[in-house]
UniProtKB/TrEMBL annotation:
Name of the encoding gene: coaBC
InterPro entries xrefs: CoaB-like_sf, CoaBC, DNA/pantothenate-metab_flavo_C, Flavin_trans-like, Flavoprotein
Native organism: Candidatus Thiodiazotropha endolucinida
Protein name per UniProt: Coenzyme A biosynthesis bifunctional protein CoaBC
Record function comment: Catalyzes two steps in the biosynthesis of coenzyme A. In the first step cysteine is conjugated to 4'-phosphopantothenate to form 4-phosphopantothenoylcysteine, in the latter compound is decarboxylated to form 4'-phosphopantotheine. Catalyzes two sequential steps in the biosynthesis of coenzyme A. In the first step cysteine is conjugated to 4'-phosphopantothenate to form 4-phosphopantothenoylcysteine. In the second step the latter compound is decarboxylated to form 4'-phosphopantotheine.
GO molecular function, one term: phosphopantothenate--cysteine ligase activity
Annotated DNA/pantothenate metabolism flavoprotein C-terminal domain residues: 186-394
Residues in coiled coil: none
Assigned EC number: 4.1.1.36, 6.3.2.5
Catalytic activity: N-[(R)-4-phosphopantothenoyl]-L-cysteine + H(+) = (R)-4'-phosphopantetheine + CO2; (R)-4'-phosphopantothenate + L-cysteine + CTP = N-[(R)-4-phosphopantothenoyl]-L-cysteine + CMP + diphosphate + H(+)
Pfam families: DFP (PF04127), Flavoprotein (PF02441)
Annotated stretches, region: Phosphopantothenoylcysteine decarboxylase: 1-190
Keywords attached to this entry: Decarboxylase, Flavoprotein, FMN, Ligase, Lyase, Magnesium, Metal-binding, Multifunctional enzyme
Family: In the C-terminal section; belongs to the PPC synthetase family.
Amino acid sequence: MSGLSNKKILLGVTGGIACYKSAVLLRALQTAGAEVRVVMTPAARAFVTPLTFQALSGHAVYTELLDPAQEAAMDHISLARWADLVLIAPATADFIARAATGQADDLLSTLCLATEVQIALAPAMNRQMWLNPVTQENLQRLMIRGYLCWGPDDGAQACGETGPGRMLEPEVLCQMAESHFSPGILEGVRVLMTAGATREAIDPVRFVGNRSSGKMGYALAQSMRDLGAEVTLVSGPTSLAIPSNITTIHVETALEMYSSVMEHVEDCDIFIAVAAVADYRPIQIATDKIKKNKEKQTLELVRNPDILAEVAATESPPFTVGFAAETEKVEQHADEKRRRKQLDIIAANKVGTDEGGFESDRNALLLLWQDGREELPMMTKSVLAHRLAERIAAQYRARI
Ligand code: PMT
């Protein structure tokens, strides 16, 4: 029996060219056993007529907030209470912005305020609109409030450009809705993770750091949570919003990250090291700001503990996943790290190029484990994290 059997899904359709795919999504959800009602925004109706969705769903499509006939059939509050899930596909940049500011000027945005169930967004927009910091900030605000973000995908766009912003394919969205209602493969599994960069103080105002933004680690933490895991995230300084339902511990230095991980490692089943931890720290931290009164300065550094290696070397180590940031011979160096540190999986990425790796919204990974490998091509970090989380879950389940 499908996880969608008898589930009630309110499909919100907003005004983007990906609307035509929503009709296919509607069919896929129904075929999987869900009962679907459709709400369209005025802009969506400029792309596809309500009649299409009415014919496919066998039910009237809801379009108006202040229409007495529609309110008589099922008023907007009852509609908000009827659903087990609100899925907005496509979710345009405009709709995301309006939801983030709590506007209720049409039926769909009003339903989002009125519903108590989970709301999942399937963003669809031009790549530049997706990458615009304002869109990202709006999305972060919604995710802090518990919204789910499914996608977007990466690839050719209707506007002729290529990049992130395509709506996920209907079958993929249908699978995500299905796994949303199925007990997660990682239900009851405790995951400890590191993410972001560390900062090693030189004096009160300067530090040794690196370019890690935390995007890869935060996306993976959310994907592990979405598979049902109980996630604790030890994070270096980032500008990212704290993800909902994830215990987040903020640290600054490698030593602080090390102590925090060691304090929690006994209580975890899976450990994932995504953080870019400084390998060295200054031997001495100057108490006062260092003056620029010399032509040359020498900074003496000392090795930091290797958190990942130490976790893997504990008496009964958790299922251990490491990352490898490599600039050349990616597979060779990563596999050498996997063997030396005795890791269950290593996720290798090429860094120092124009695309992917540090700071970028996109990345590609090569996953290596004892008797297998998987290549995940360049895609948005959120979709990539979902694919990686599924691989980790499968290998973890196969081992226990
Ligand atoms: O944060 P983003 O901007 O999204 O960028 C993502 C990323 C590029 C940082 C991420 O994908 C990544 O590659 N993370 C690992 C970075 C790194 O430090 O790689 P490494 O090859 O130097 O280290 C190997 C592994 O050992 C890593 O899992 C690292 O977390 C771990 N390590 C390293 C040193 C140390 N002292 N302690 C550790 O735990």
